[in-house]
């Protein structure tokens, strides 16, 4: 069949239309409903950020959000407010799992075309040509949100800065665009293969040469604690923050920390761990709701394999669990 004769302007317009293809009436109702639900910290951040969006002066902002502080709720509300006003808001995330949290969000590598070898390029730029379909979107965007950003290499920000300056023909930081970074440095840092701790710190966003210009906000009210009013959840939240902030004493000989006695339940073997997390697995392995409420987390794949093959009975349970998933 003959190729269709469609120029790049059509591609530009399709991307702009896709970003503007929202029900503004429905979004306005959602904003009116959800703004009163913000707690005082969230409302303060929301009002400041929306004021910056309205002024259009751009800037680089970082929202420090430990788990369960309502980060996704706040980001979604900012998105809805901008889109309800016919504005364009772009959201990217470091991983595909994080990208599912915000409507219309994409992975950073998909949307911004970061080089895959950021660690080896001294002055990287995004692989975005001026005839790229998303160019008009980046130029017109009121805000670019980078969610779950702490695992991102600092050179990704450098690449985005150079690219936006070029596309928007503006010498200001990020071409005058408003960039909002959001995540928690206590959780995840960049993973640099075959590196030292110093290499990971050097690759961290806090080592970015413009980090001192970042305007920082913080959410500290844990909504999982505040809404159910659960004292045990509040204690657990405080313990997590104490560990994340590096306030727990470290044993000088082993380099390990000691968990508080009421932090978790300790087991002496893998079999005991499996039995505690998945009690009576053979009788319950077909119960999807029961399975969805429990999981064993592992830092590396080799630990997953250890659990998979620790004994024949465990292996049969694992196989049954995989079939259900």
UniProtKB/TrEMBL annotation:
<dbReference type="GO" id="GO:0016887">
    <property type="term" value="F:ATP hydrolysis activity"/>
</dbReference>
<dbReference type="InterPro" id="IPR027417">
    <property type="entry name" value="P-loop_NTPase"/>
</dbReference>
<comment type="similarity">
    <text>Belongs to the helicase family.</text>
</comment>
<keyword id="KW-0347">Helicase</keyword>
<dbReference type="GO" id="GO:0006310">
    <property type="term" value="P:DNA recombination"/>
</dbReference>
<dbReference type="GO" id="GO:0000723">
    <property type="term" value="P:telomere maintenance"/>
</dbReference>
<keyword id="KW-0227">DNA damage</keyword>
<dbReference type="GO" id="GO:0005524">
    <property type="term" value="F:ATP binding"/>
</dbReference>
<feature type="domain" description="DNA helicase Pif1-like DEAD-box helicase">
    <location>
        <begin position="38"/>
        <end position="250"/>
    </location>
</feature>
<dbReference type="InterPro" id="IPR010285">
    <property type="entry name" value="DNA_helicase_pif1-like_DEAD"/>
</dbReference>
<keyword id="KW-0378">Hydrolase</keyword>
<dbReference type="GO" id="GO:0043139">
    <property type="term" value="F:5'-3' DNA helicase activity"/>
</dbReference>
<keyword id="KW-0067">ATP-binding</keyword>
<keyword id="KW-0233">DNA recombination</keyword>
<keyword id="KW-0234">DNA repair</keyword>
<protein>
    <recommendedName>
        <fullName>ATP-dependent DNA helicase</fullName>
        <ecNumber>5.6.2.3</ecNumber>
    </recommendedName>
</protein>
<keyword id="KW-0547">Nucleotide-binding</keyword>
<dbReference type="GO" id="GO:0006281">
    <property type="term" value="P:DNA repair"/>
</dbReference>
<dbReference type="Pfam" id="PF05970">
    <property type="entry name" value="PIF1"/>
</dbReference>
